[in-house]
Amino acid sequence: MATTADFRTGLIIKLDGSLYSVVEFGQNKTARAAAKVWAKLKGVDNTRSIEHTWNSGDNIFPVRVERRPYQFLYKDDSGFNLMDTATFEQIIISTSSIEHPELYKEGQECFVLVNTETELPMSVELPPNVVLRVTYSEPGVKGDTATRTLKPATVETGATVNVPLFVNTDELIRIDSKTGAYIERVKE
Fold it and tell me: What are the φ/ψ torsions at residue 106 (nearest 5 degrees)?
């Protein structure tokens, strides 16, 4: 059993029969009333995002989750096909359970979050950043570099990422897998 003092970002809790991940949390104190703990929660087994408030010290019900390494094989009509790198077992995950599905490249390493109570996969996440090749980008215009101007570029997975003007076709770039934003150019 845990209490509201155990909150941390990324903690998965059971609330009203559904699983939620803690996105943000904080505490409100007033002069005469007891402290309240609030949290912004994102649904793990549903698509809802909610805010909830507890009295300080209330019990919460965390869910034990394991992060297991998998490899993305391919995508078809049934979903994303992933292979466990330890046992070579394959599973199929629906596209709705995957964050930024446009950044997945065949052979890409990823992690599946598994509920240890039911042994069912809950969601899939990429490493913090991924390296992809730019397949199309319009050339930058000389003299346009006075401000941080961005242009759209298409990467090998088909995703469109805003990149600085100096990035050209056939270069490798590092992309933040949480936001889908450009980080830096990568040397080959």
Answer: -55, 130
